[in-house]
Structure formats: C-alpha cells, structure tokens
C-alpha cells in the first residue's frame, strides 16, 4: 500500500471517529416502574459544575411507548443552584404529530426523543446543580413513559 493511500485511509478513519464522538458532559436517565409516571414522582439529576465560563446546551430525553395516550407531555423542571436558588419552568414535549404519528427514533413499542430545553447557557456558580423533572399532565398515573432523562452538552462559545 502506498503512503498516499495509507494517509487517506488514516484521515478518513480519524474523521469518522471524530464525527461519532459525543460532546456531552452529563447524561442521566431514570427508569419509571411499569412504564408509568405517578404525579408525585420526581426524577432527580445531580450535575457537578466546575466551569462557569463555558456555554452548555440542556436537553430533556423522553422514552415513551406507543401506549402513551397523549400527543404531548408537559413537565415541571426545577433547577436548584448550589446557593439554594431555584428556578421553575413548565416545558412541553411533542411525542406525536397532529395526525398521531409518533416522533423520535425507534421501532416497535418504544420511541426515543431528545428535546432542546435551553441552548448556550452558562451556570452562574460552581458546585452541584440539582435538576428535577415532574410530569404535569393532570393525571395521577401517566401511562406510557418508560424513562425520563436529562442531558448537558458543551455549547458553542459565543
């Protein structure tokens, strides 16, 4: 094999590995028992932050089943900072389109979705942040959600 062919193969291999690399700094999931989410059940994630100058993208991950009875999912999202300050949001995730076709990736019974919650945000202080997710669908026992997750990725430096 010539040096040129070896160089081309090496560059392509490195490019493929670089394209497949992941830039997440946190990725956590909570499995929900019997694919049901009780109104009082809270999914909690602890995210250590040591860099307050870096921008991050925040995502909510939802794994639902085709038994899920609604088009969307409303969530309460609380972010508790190390200093005790808490911010609360209501966040809507669309799991199916207007015609009832499931969105996200997957085949068979399960669908995986990633929803952008915030883009290019910085954490205000170093320390551990606590993110909690709670279903806000006004039903006591929400069927068809098998896992809920939270993901933090490196954002773009503005």
What does this structure look like?
The chain is mainly β and 158 residues long. It is 11% helix and 51% strand. The longest helix is centred in the N-terminal third of the chain and has 18 residues, at 3-20. The radius of gyration is 19 Å and the shape is globular. Residues 13-21 have low confidence and may be disordered.
First-to-last CA distance: 45 Å
Strand % is over 45%
What string, H for helix and E for strand, traces the elements in order?
HEEEEEEEEEE
Measured on Cα atoms, how large is the radius of gyration? 19 Å
Strand order across the largest sheet: 1-10-4-7
- Extract low-pLDDT stretches: 13-21
Shape: globular
Q: Helical proportion?
A: 10-25%
Structural class of the helices, strands and pairings? mainly beta
Layout of secondary structure:
Blueprint: H1 3-20, E1 24-31, E2 36-38, E3 42-49, E4 56-65, E5 72-80, E6 86-94, E7 110-121, E8 127-135, E9 141-143, E10 145-154
Key features?
about 160 residues, mainly beta, four-stranded antiparallel beta sheet, 1 helix, globular
């Amino acid at each position: 094999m010539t040096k040129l062919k070896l160089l081309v193969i090496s560059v392509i291999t490195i490019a493929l590995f670089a394209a497949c690399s992941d830039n997440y700094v946190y990725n956590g999931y909570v499995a929900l028992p019997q694919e049901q989410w009780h109104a009082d059940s809270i999914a909690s994630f602890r995210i250590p932050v040591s860099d307050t100058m870096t921008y991050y993208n925040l995502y909510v991950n939802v794994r639902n089943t085709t038994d899920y009875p609604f088009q969307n999912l409303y969530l309460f999202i609380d972010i508790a900072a190390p200093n005790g300050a808490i911010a609360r949001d209501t966040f809507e995730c669309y799991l199916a389109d207007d015609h009832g076709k499931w969105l996200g990736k997957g085949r068979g019974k399960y669908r995986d979705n990633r929803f952008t919650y915030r883009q290019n945000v910085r954490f205000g202080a170093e320390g551990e942040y606590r993110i909690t997710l709670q279903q806000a669908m006004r039903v006591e026992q929400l069927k068809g959600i098998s896992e809920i997750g939270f993901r933090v990725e490196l954002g773009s430096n503005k």
